Amino acid sequence: MAKLSLFERRRRRVRTALKARSGQNPRPRLSIHRSGRHIYAQVIDDSNGHTVAAASTLDKDVRGKAGATSEAAADVGKRVAALATKAGVTQVVFDRGGFLFHGRVKALADAAREGGLEF
């Protein structure tokens, strides 16, 4: 078996912990993906297998033209929180994938909390 990268090891550890915690009362998952230029967030209801809300820096009216900033990530966090709240979701679990919790990922998470999501 091939050796896993550090990113893949973190990703598996995070997903395993999320599955273990969900138990009998599964919450929707706020999933984050960060690329060099953009950041994407979506609230996924795994029990039904569909996306409840999604936002990214690719959306036309995200603040600023550069997608790779903490301000743009915070704007995405506020947007996804507003869309999820509108869909009736207030409690989620935060799935950061294999990404470290700092910088743009942290800015998105903090803005989503301010926007009304609990995690």
From TrEMBL:
TM regions (residue ranges): none
A Pfam family annotated for this UniProt entry: Ribosomal_L18p
Keyword Ribosomal protein: yes
GO cellular component: cytosolic large ribosomal subunit
Single GO MF descriptor: structural constituent of ribosome
Keywords: Ribonucleoprotein, Ribosomal protein, RNA-binding, rRNA-binding
Superkingdom to which the source organism belongs: Bacteria
A biological-process GO annotation: translation
Self-association and partners: Part of the 50S ribosomal subunit; part of the 5S rRNA/L5/L18/L25 subcomplex. Contacts the 5S and 23S rRNAs.
Family: Belongs to the universal ribosomal protein uL18 family.
HAMAP family per the UniProt record, alphabetical: Ribosomal_uL18_B (MF_01337_B)
Role summary: This is one of the proteins that bind and probably mediate the attachment of the 5S RNA into the large ribosomal subunit, where it forms part of the central protuberance.
Descriptive protein name: Large ribosomal subunit protein uL18
Organism per entry: Sphingobium subterraneum
